[in-house]
Amino acid sequence: MEHHFFDLALLNQAVFACLDNINKLCKNFVHVDRINIFIETLSPSTLALFHIDSQTEQKGVWSQTSATDDNTFHCELSSIPMHYNHTTYQLFLAEVIPANYYQDVQNCYHSSLYWTDDCHCALHFLRTNDNSFTESEITKLQQLAELVAKIITNLFTIEQINSEKTFFEHEHLRDHILVNITNTAISIRDLDKMLKRVAQDIIEFFHIDYIGLIVPSSEQVQQQLYSTYRLSDTKFSQQCISLNLPQSFIKKLALSPTLDIYSIEELHAQYSKNNILNTMLDFGLTSLYCLPLTLANQQKGALLLAHRHADIFSSDNIDLFKRIADRITIAVDNIEAYQHVSNLNHSLTNENRYLSEEIHLIDSYREIVGQSKAIQKVLEQVEMVADSASSVLLLGETGTGKELFAKAIHQRSSRRNKRMIKINCSAVPANLLESELFGHERGAFTNANTQRIGRFELAHGSTLLLDEIGDIPLELQPKLLRVLQEKEIERLGSNKTIPVDARVIAATNCDLEKMVADKTFRADLYYRLNVFPIHIPPLRHRKEDIPALAQFFTQKFAHQMKRDIDSIASSTLQQLCDYDWPGNVRELANVIERAVILTKGASLNLNMQSFLVNDHSLLQVPIISKVQPPDISNHHFNHNDLIQREKIIQVLKETNGIIAGPKGAAVRLGLKRTTLLSRMQKLNISAKEVIQEE
Fold first, then answer.
1. Which contacts qualify for 175-182: CB closer than 8 Å, 24 or more apart?
2. Considering its fold, how many domains does the chain have in total?
3. Is the pTM for the entire model greater than 0.70?
4. How many angstroms separate the Cα of 631 from the Cα of each of 423, 622, 659, 683?
């Protein structure tokens, strides 16, 4: 790294202050008539003389710069302290310094102040009379010279540090624009938007006047030219025009295999009718730089840069322009690939390739994947209710992702800075649920050895999700209603009321209206919870989201298992889309997880029929069961109901009628215990009868 740390203008004030102080000290110890300080740098080759008249205290500076790097300091002994008399000082000058600066000088004491490969500095004490310096005077002058040397050394050190700081700041800015352009290149998939962002970065960094990008259009005979002119520091003129490729000037630039700097005047003389060149001349531009955009020996277009002055295209800037062009080339290639894939929507295979690159995840909703109208309607409802304090009731079949939507509501609310608290009402034994919700004091009941904080207290200032609210015991429902109405709780074993501010979101797959009609769920609690109901659609009602969900789960489980699976076979995707998924998204996730385990290649490929039959899935072909309840003919089951019925019966046989527990039928089927019982009741299945038939 080359450092030009000598700046005459920056040193003037400091050197003159040094001369003033040394002159004052000299008056107390040694008589001199003038004091001169030489500073010479070799890159660039510059010689400066700072001087002061001891009597009048008038100061001045003389300097010269050489066009070459030849040494201008013609003193062989300049690094060694020397005493020159009137017969020898001319050898030192050697006609380098104008004669008037040493006119009438009879004695000179020379001392080196600073000596490096890049810079020399010396101090001269001068007398115009013939009184030679005594040994005592030389000692004092040497002491003064050592003091000046420290000052000059510090000045040069500061200048060098500032120069290095400037250099590294410039390097940081260079890296910064490359990072900005790289981020733009990989994040923006629209060519027009990408160029506008890149153009703004380049213009702000280089203060360049024009940026253009020539890229092939979808029509082979045309080129697209995206142009940005700088009208002022804050205003730009941006346009995109289609040009015919046979136009010789555009063809010359678009297909140029090498870097070229053109004179716009000369180009205009050759292509006088070209409107682009006319516009450039109208803007006062003089030089045009063309960088080919080449990737894997394929021409992707050209980057054009034009400016009023050719010096913008220095070797340093050109190196940076090349690196910028490389990133733009990759961006153009990525955008072309993206657009190509986006247009291939006529088959499931092409749609799968698209999804493998562009799974649309709504950032605000984490793992909620989908663009169907059904899911968008739900998200609109989430947006509407999120920032209110109203209770929300999430209704939907098991496996539809009700908890994810509860999290989405919480994350979009003003309570998002606190952790959402949740409780599954069906997973906690009925005799412990009250304690879990409201807490208890020590000694409130057997084994209550310590005080316990309930979920409502934990959710103070946050959100409480009451999952499977339909399974809450009837006797506990009045207490829950009181908390929702009064916003206060009482711990078990205490009569002290505790105010709580918890926003409640309830979720269930039960038909609460029917439960109210059946007197198994309190009507007043239902109305309190049902302030803002949101119905989560089952997967069979948003089948257009299945490809995105399948890709999402494939990538998720492949990453967890450290498997290299990046796509889904079109036949597999078709089968996934054809199935009704009674277990909804949870069932789809389980199927994909098992498929990832079994997949050997880079593409998720499986025969759904045989795969799920072997794994006792709901896709199993119906087999005439030995268990045929007498009244089955009176039930109007559809085809899917029959498939589910046979599946459940088969799994119950395998689990010996056990429903709950780690080895029970509910776990095997990927369902909750309550959900399985509900389906068995609906499908007229008795576990006892199944075992008896066996």
1. 177/201, 177/202, 177/205, 177/320, 177/324, 178/320, 178/323, 178/324, 178/327, 181/324, 181/327, 181/328, 182/327
2. 4
3. no
4. 39, 19, 23, 11
Tokens 């050489």, located at residue:
66
Q: Between the CA of residue 624 and those of 383, 527, 628, 643, what are the distances in Å? A: 49, 45, 9, 11
Q: Which one, of 240, 277, 22, lies nearest residue 124 by Cα?
A: 22
106 within domain boundaries: yes
What CATH number is associated with residue 92?
3.30.450.40
CA-angle at 88, arms to 85 and 92, nearest 5°: 115
With respect to residue 88, please indicate whether it lies within any of the assigned structural domains.
yes
Q: pLDDT for 331-374, tens place per residue?
A: 888 877 777 666 554 334 433 433 333 333 333 455 688 888 99
Q: Are 387 and 413 in contact (CB under 8 A)?
A: yes
Q: Which helix (H) or strand (E) holds 684?
A: none
Q: In what order do the strands lie in the sheet with 236-244?
A: 236-244, 222-230, 210-216, 298-307, 287-295, 260-263
Query: Are 152 and 13 within one domain?
Result: yes
Give one word for 398, left, alpha or beta, with left for phi > 0 and alpha for psi -120 to 50: beta
What local confidence, expressed as pLDDT, does residue 342 receive?
Answer: 62
pLDDT in tens, 554-613: 999 999 998 888 888 888 888 888 888 888 998 888 888 888 888 888 888 776 665 544
Q: What is the pLDDT of residues 216-240, one digit of tens each?
A: 765 555 677 877 887 776 777 777 7
Domain membership of residue 688 as a residue range: 630-693
